[in-house]
Amino acid sequence: MPEDVEKPDDDLRTRLHAMETRMRRMRDQRNGHNEDARRAADSRNAIQEQGKELRESIKARLDEQKTIRDQAKVHKAKRDEIQNQIRELINQKKGRRSDEKNSKSIVLQLTETVSEIDRIENTIMTDGRLTLESENKLLKKLKSLISRRNELLPAVAEFEIIKIDLNDMDGSIIILKSEADSEHQAMIDCHKQADGIWEDVKPILEERDFLRAEGDRLHAAYITSREAANEVHENMKEIIDQCNEIRDEIKAANEERERVIRDHNLSVKDALRTPDQDEDMADSLTEQLLNSGSLIIGGIRESDEQLTVSKDGGLNKKRGRKFGTARGKK
User: Fold this and answer.
1) Alpha carbon distance 140, 133 (integer Å)
2) 171: region left, alpha or beta (phi > 0 left; psi from -120 to 50 alpha)
3) Comparing C-alpha atoms, which of 286, 310, 282 is closest to residue 296?
4) Within the chain, what is the greatest distance between any pair of CA atoms?
5) Helical segments of the chain, H only
6) What integer pLDDT is reported at residue 102 of this predicted model?
7) How high is the pLDDT of residue 276?
8) Residue 128: in which H helix or E strand, if any?
9) So what's the pLDDT on residue 114?
């Protein structure tokens, strides 16, 4: 094979081999980045799962704390309402009455309303001196008081406030003070319990924050590794395109070399072909011989008849000359 045909092909193969070697290194590098990304993702997912469990635990504890804080607010509201009742009773005991109806505690308002309802009902049932007009006025007032009582009952039931006896103010004040102290202590106990829960939650919150930061770090590592793998992959795509171009060039060179070899073999085969293998060649040689004169067919003995082929294609017989031994003179 000529040297100028092989040399470019060898150069292409050398370049292709170098690029394929580089491709293998880049593939290993990309796989390494992908493996780093997978490990980071697995660790991140595990951390996030731990964080999720901690957040659920924290939420449950904080919900419990909120419930206790709400209970403390209820105790505080009860204490304040009882203390308001005490002030109202003390004012009534001293003969001071508030002109504003709504300034009284709801329990005291309810107590006074119920007492007035009982008084009117008793009057209607027992006082025979009532005229029809007076009775109608009392019934109208009774209806209004009953409506007021129905408005106050839910509020009193909500706070579970004890009823007071207006006929025994001193005893009611003592009972109310005891209830106020009890509600105040219950409020303090609730706050202490809620504070204890918060002390238990604080280290869990710190652990949650650590896990969150660690999860963010691992996620950033995952993103970095994935981006590095994608960058290597993009570079690999460029080299793959170059390798394909080189392979196409090598393929074209091989096809050209095969064509040259095929043409050369055909040329050699044609050169070695004999007239009996090539009808065109035989016809050509016959034409040349016919154009050259005559063609002698047979041996060269003078005594044999010789056939000659004339230019017009006919056969002529010639008598051969006889050769012998002449007797010489002595």
Assistant:
1) 11
2) alpha
3) 310
4) 221
5) 3-93, 106-126, 132-159, 169-271, 279-292
6) 46
7) 58
8) none
9) 80
**3-class state of residue 108 by DSSP:** helix
Give me the residue spans of the domains in the chain: 3-238, 286-318
Residue in this structure with the two tokens 């073999």, named with its chain if needed: 265
Cβ–Cβ under 8 Å, residues 261 and 254: no
Which DSSP string corresponds to 154-188?
HHHHHHTPPP--TT-HHHHHHHHHHHHHHHHHHHH
Q: Inform me whether the pLDDT recorded for 330 exceeds 90.
A: no
Per-residue pLDDT tens digits for 265-309: 888 777 766 655 556 666 666 676 667 655 555 545 444 444 454
Residue 158 has pLDDT above 60, yes or no: no
The first and second tokens of residue 22, run together, are 């580089």
What is the tens place of the pLDDT at every residue in 10-34?
A: 777 887 888 888 888 888 888 899 9
Q: Which CATH number fits domain 3-238: 3.40.50, 2.30.30, 1.10.287, 1.10.3720?
A: 1.10.287
Question: Residue 307 belongs to what H/E stretch?
Answer: strand 306-309
pLDDT digits (tens, 9 = 90+) for 197-241: 999 998 988 898 999 999 999 999 999 999 999 988 888 888 888
Interior/surface letters 273-289, b for 16+ CB within 10 angstroms, e for the rest: eeeeeeeeeeeeeeeee
Residue 205 DSSP SS3: helix
Percent of the chain with pLDDT over 90: 18
Calpha distance 239→243 (Å, rounded):
6
Residue 318 to residue 256: CA distance in whole angstroms:
61
Q: Which residues pair with 315 in a beta bridge?
A: 309
Cα dihedral 216→221→225→226 (10° resolution): 0
